[in-house]
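Supplementary Data S3. Sequence and structure tokens for construct A.
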Amino acid sequence: MRLVVKVGGSLTRDRARLLALLDDIKATGADNDVIIVPGGGGLADTVRALDDRFALSTGTSHKMALLAMESMARMLAQLMDAPLEGGIDELRCERTGVRVVSIMGVAPALDIPEGWHVTSDSIALYVAAAAGAELVVLAKDVDGVYTADPSKGGQAERYATIAASELSRLHDSPVDDHFPQAAESLGMEAVLVHGGDVGIVRSIAAGKPLGGTRIIPA
């Protein structure tokens, strides 16, 4: 199975949790083709703050955010001793193992819209569609899509499955604003899971998801 795993930048705040997730991804790559798309993490947050402070152009802030993702990609490639690949043709080659996407390498071929409504969540969909992946796994610091933000108290129920078109109607969506449109137009399915859940990526690749929310392009 070929799948794209978006490693959320927020997971880098906890060293042990991130390394456990990377071990899980590496184990999954023993008999699957796993392509990692990194989140921008704190580096992207810094870019956003600079954009707010200095009113940067959309193009400038977009490229700076991509560079933040590129920096995270290089870190993940080193931590996993995995190749960094920046060509669409490379990503389409069938193999087993783990590779990390060089965002600056592939971005020019993906026609990614510019703006803060597009983050690594949507970019993972574009990479998956271009690479011919079957599924996108969004490993973040939330364990699914909820009817309301569970961190704010009150009643919140997790969706087992949700249509991408329904995401834009949620008051507190855990994915970026462009994600619903991208999922539908690209026809990509995704699963949003908590990156700290042990063995979560292996379970998804084996067709036995332990939790999370499946997002279907409808």
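Construct B, processed identically:
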Amino acid sequence: MAEELGQAQDVQSTQGTYETRADAGKGNAGEVTLWLQAIELATKEESAWRKRAAETIDIYRDATDRKSKRYNILYANTEVLSQAVYNSRALPDVRARYQEADPVSVTTARVLERALEYSCDDSNHDFDSCIKAAVKDILLPGRCVDRIRYEPTFEKKNKRIALIPHPMTGQLMRVDSGEYLDTQD
């Protein structure tokens, strides 16, 4: 009986959903409808988990109003466990997959390793605080999603290139390298 009730609730919770993308409609409106319904279903599906997660974080922060003084064991345990899970930044170690003396793969591995080291050391991206927050998210509510926004910076450089006509053909060519300028573009 309980199993049948669970199946009935599963059917009821997904009632009104679309079986295929075509059922949602065509074009951008159909795509929006499909995504909105997927978000609504996901919100319903995990509402109980979100409630428990919020309660756990409130206990960790000791956000309840209480008159008696108690020791917050969840806070103490979480702080100890977080240090055990992540206490210092690891050093990147990138190697070629097959230990061959291929200079391209060795150079590529070295470039990737140095890029990872720079990304972790860069003062604009606080790697340690991001990972520590992720560890707390794993230990308390039980889920972690890290998002790091990349904001590129560009420099506009106007470089003047000296051009002279070739003496025989009259086609323009660069003074510094002698390359011909393609005038077809």
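Confidence is low (pLDDT under 50) at residues 1-13. Strands lie at 163-165, 172-174.
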